[in-house]
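ARCHIVE CARD
Drawer: 12
Card no.: 0347
Subject: one protein chain, sequence and derived structure
Cross-reference: see card 0346
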Amino acid sequence: MFKTKKSKVGQAEPVEGFSSKEVAALAGISLRQLQWWDERNVVSPRHVGHKRLYSPQDVLEISVIAELRRKGFSLQKIRRVLRYLQREMGRRLSDVFSRDSDLHLLTDGKSIYLEDRQERIIDILKNARQPMFLVCVTDQARRLRGLPKKAPRSEAAVAARRVRAGG
């Protein structure tokens, strides 16, 4: 017969979350980098004893931060983005990537922008209080579909020359 193991009295329930090793592998960063980011309060996981446990939101934020670092953004610039989201918008970076989010992060490789409305983008790294406004060419083209079409400019120019030349 098999003996069953007796559960120890006071044994802690398993705690849910991702370990440092799992997060480092998922984000493609070193364990030391992860530890350093925790020490600098970039992304701070829960501490259970000597272990760090990361929530799914933490893992998403770390993955995005790691990708921005690989794209050449300094940690200082990334922290400015994180602070702006938290202070001005009351959000975390992971909130930007949720399905029902009305926020979007954009980058041109030099700056990081936040789209907080359909027609407004804020340059977080320069002057967050002065937004850029978007004009969508496709939307304008859709509006113009109902208007009568003009002849292409080159055809109109040819016709005008004929009229001036008398024929």
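Annotation on reverse: The beta strands are 46-48, 51-53, 104-107, 112-117, 120-123, 132-133. Residues 20-147 form a domain with the Multidrug-efflux Transporter Regulator; Chain: A; Domain 2 fold (CATH 1.10.1660.10).
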